[in-house]
Amino acid sequence: MVADGMRVGLGSGSTVAYLLPALAQRELRTLTCVATSQSTERAARKLGLTVRSLDDLGELDLAIDGADQVDPRGWLIKGGGAAHTREKIVAAASRRFVVIASAEKAVSALGPPVPLELLRFGLRSTLAAVGNARLREGAGVSPDGGLIADYWGPVGDPRRLAARLSAIPGVVEHGLFAPEMVSLILIAGEAGVERRAGGGER
């Protein structure tokens, strides 16, 4: 799917780590990339890929990223690596958003945790409004300095939960990605790669 001259968004996480050397091996001289995290940017540059900022490039031809969970309708949970806000911005700025995942990420229904990026100001009030949420230990800061928490309550209807979380002041972004953002999902299993059309195929 990646051709020379394209502007490609690169996601974050363990699955994307396999993507970067595969792209570099193709030696696409005029490929330009946008990275969603500092770790992806460092790894891409080390492999010789050209990385620029999203503001420099504007609309992207393609974004490729992994997922923590994928349900049968194409809803995703992302943000295990704390970069879901940037990942969502890059996906929204791309004409096509392709998700690559291993078979264990495919689930019958989404479940907790749902990652959140929160403002520091009024943190206690924000956590109370979210409910069933707690700050993440370890890598608890986003690439832009926001605090990372996880919502541990039931997901139920993902669209309803996404709307509720988005409406809470202090929530910068949540890790629920709607199917209409996704063009194609590629799930690798023992029998090969399963292709699922996303709700936003175009």
- For the termini, the CA-CA separation is 13 Å
What's the helix count?
Answer: 6
Please, what is the average pLDDT? Answer: 94
Side by side, the strands of the main sheet go 3-2-1-4-7-13-14
In total, how many beta strands? 14
Structural class: alpha/beta
Considering DSSP H and I runs of 4 or more, what fraction of the residues is helical? Answer: 25-40%
Strand percentage lies at 25-35%
Rg (CA only): 17 Å
Question: SSE order, as H and E?
Answer: EHEHEHEEEHEEHEEHEEEE
Question: Oligomeric state of the chains?
Answer: single chain
From the spread of the alpha carbons, the general shape counts as globular
Q: Sheet with the most strands?
A: 7 strands, mixed
- Given as residue ranges, the uncertain stretches (5+ residues, pLDDT < 50) are none
Could you walk me through the main structural features you see in this protein, from its secondary elements to its overall organization?
The chain has 202 residues and is an alpha/beta fold. The protein has six helices and 14 strands. The strands form three sheets. Strands 3-2-1-4-7-13-14 form a seven-stranded mixed sheet. A four-stranded antiparallel sheet has the order 9-10-8-11, with helices on one face. The longest helix has 12 residues, at 14-25. The two termini are 13 Å apart. The mean pLDDT is 94.
